[in-house]
From TrEMBL:
Gene Ontology MF annotations: phosphatidylglycerophosphatase activity
The keyword Cell membrane is assigned to this record: no
Record's keyword terms, sorted: Hydrolase
One cellular component (GO) term of this entry: cytoplasm
Source organism of the structure: Faecalitalea cylindroides
Protein name per its UniProtKB record: HAD family hydrolase
Amino acid sequence: MALLKPKYYVSSFEHMSIERLKQQGIKLLLCDIDNTLVSYDEKHPSPSVIAFIDRVKSSGIEVALCSNATKERATRFSKDLNVSTTYYFSMKPLPKNFIQAMKKHNLKANQVAIIGDQMFTDILGGNLAGLYTILTAPIAVKDRGVTKINRFFENIVYKVLEHKGDFKRGEFDD
Ligand SMILES: [Mg+2]
């Protein structure tokens, strides 16, 4: 269960403290797209997403997109956001892309953070690889396909973690 628990829990990417990441020694932020930055039906990032990515980059932390979305969708976002590295169809929670990202940027796992909205892909995968994991509340209530199934199990995990007094849904760190 500890592998499903994020190290940092925020209500939205906009409330993620870049300062906190700097203090943790983070050099690279891997960013999920769907339901983390935008909802599934948005084709392009909003101005607030663009501003967020710019803020992270200008703080000296590099950004890469890491999404289970299609190549077309993920590369469109990387262009719009001016992000050089994009991993699409990443098959999170498998660590393949996390290991690639560490190699490419010559970083250790504890210098890499991932922000995402799903415990069973972003957080589990990140924790397995030893990354600094950031869970954000999902943008849209509506989910698709396998995410619906993941959410079912997520609800159980939230209940167990809450029961243990470890973690409570909606009680954000920032
Ligand atoms: Mg997502």
